TrEMBL record:
<keyword id="KW-0029">Amino-acid transport</keyword>
<comment type="similarity">
    <text>Belongs to the ABC transporter superfamily.</text>
</comment>
<dbReference type="Pfam" id="PF00005">
    <property type="entry name" value="ABC_tran"/>
</dbReference>
<keyword id="KW-1003">Cell membrane</keyword>
<dbReference type="GO" id="GO:0015426">
    <property type="term" value="F:ATPase-coupled polar amino acid-transporter activity"/>
</dbReference>
<dbReference type="InterPro" id="IPR003439">
    <property type="entry name" value="ABC_transporter-like_ATP-bd"/>
</dbReference>
<dbReference type="InterPro" id="IPR050086">
    <property type="entry name" value="MetN_ABC_transporter-like"/>
</dbReference>
<keyword id="KW-0067">ATP-binding</keyword>
<protein>
    <recommendedName>
        <fullName>ABC-type polar-amino-acid transporter</fullName>
        <ecNumber>7.4.2.1</ecNumber>
    </recommendedName>
</protein>
<dbReference type="GO" id="GO:0005886">
    <property type="term" value="C:plasma membrane"/>
</dbReference>
<keyword id="KW-0547">Nucleotide-binding</keyword>
<keyword id="KW-0472">Membrane</keyword>
<dbReference type="InterPro" id="IPR027417">
    <property type="entry name" value="P-loop_NTPase"/>
</dbReference>
<dbReference type="InterPro" id="IPR030679">
    <property type="entry name" value="ABC_ATPase_HisP-typ"/>
</dbReference>
<feature type="domain" description="ABC transporter">
    <location>
        <begin position="2"/>
        <end position="246"/>
    </location>
</feature>
<keyword id="KW-0813">Transport</keyword>
<dbReference type="GO" id="GO:0005524">
    <property type="term" value="F:ATP binding"/>
</dbReference>
Length: 250
């Protein structure tokens, strides 16, 4: 579903990604770990083309991100085509970024109605189902300010699912939450994984990674230091840098 090869990204004179290779198979969960500033968010932003990589290639479901090949040459896609491709990728951020003036249901309906032209009644029914899936059927008419952080993040997940993504990207989805609210969000994510969603999850929740991830990737200084099944990377890391990081977060 995702194949990244030699991805480079620099900001000014700073090399943030220095040749990242990463593969996520359909239906698998990849947990991306690494210290602050290692390039995790930048990598996710390159995958859904919020950022343009300076080198290397990324493809999602067989389609190169941001360009197409024609007669062996590389042609950059226009902004409209990039935006269309981005619709297939759901993203959930640390900060939930819900529309404060809209109810939970309206937040979930917004993109299907505005972007895809789905009829409002149909979008509303679908939103009800998605809110039920994240355990918030009773909160459809609540505004974000009336919801806890964990509930808001679950609405944000339902909102991303409303566009029927084939890939979900999570960037530290529980880092801004009070500790007692982390579990309910991780439970929803675990359910998505069980339903076969392909996901890349940036997280410091090692327990979640150990339990849910198919592959764990440890990024440091813009390169993949170590990757493999969680039983290897988290339980018996081979690299000193991975060991040092795990000792800090565990
Ligand atoms: P992580 O998510 O692993 O904490 P980031 O991908 O956010 O790391 O950032 C990696 C590095 O890139 C950091 O040094 C950060 O300061 C730098 N960086 C990220 N975004 C920008 C930007 N838009 N402009 C300049 N530097 C950036
Ligand atoms: Mg980050």
């Amino acid at each position: 579903m995702v194949v990244a090869e030699g991805v480079h990204k620099r900001y000014g004179s700073v090399d943030v990604l220095r040749g990242v290779d990463l593969t996520v198979r359909r239906g698998e969960v990849c947990c991306l770990l690494g210290p602050s500033g290692s390039g995790k968010s930048t990598f996710l932003r390159c995958v859904n083309r919020l950022e343009k990589a300076d080198g290397g290639t990324i493809s999602v479901d067989g389609e190169p991100v941001g360009f197409r090949r024609h007669q062996g040459r590389r042609h950059e896609l226009r902004e409209k085509a990039v935006a269309a491709a981005r619709r297939d990728i759901g993203m959930v951020f640390q900060r939930f970024n819900l529309f404060p003036h809209l109810t939970a249901a309206e937040n979930v309906m917004e993109a299907p109605v505005r972007v895809k032209g789905v009829a409002k009644d149909e979008a509303r029914q679908r939103a009800a189902k998605l809110l039920d899936r994240v355990g918030l059927a009773a909160k459809a008419d609540s505004r974000p300010a009336q919801l806890s952080g964990g509930q808001q993040q679950r609405v944000a997940i339902a909102r991303a699912l409303a566009m029927d993504p084939k890939l979900m990207l999570f960037d530290e989805p529980t880092s801004a939450l009070d500790p007692e609210l982390v579990g309910e969000v991780l439970d929803v994510m675990r359910g998505l994984a069980e339903d076969g969603m392909t996901m890349i999850v940036v997280t410091h929740e090692i327990g979640f990674a150990r339990e849910v991830a198919d592959t764990t990737v440890f990024l440091d200084g813009g390169v993949v230091v170590e990757s493999g099944p969680p039983a290897e990377v988290l339980t018996a890391p081979r690299q000193e840098r991975t060991r040092a990081f795990l000792a800090k977060v565990l």
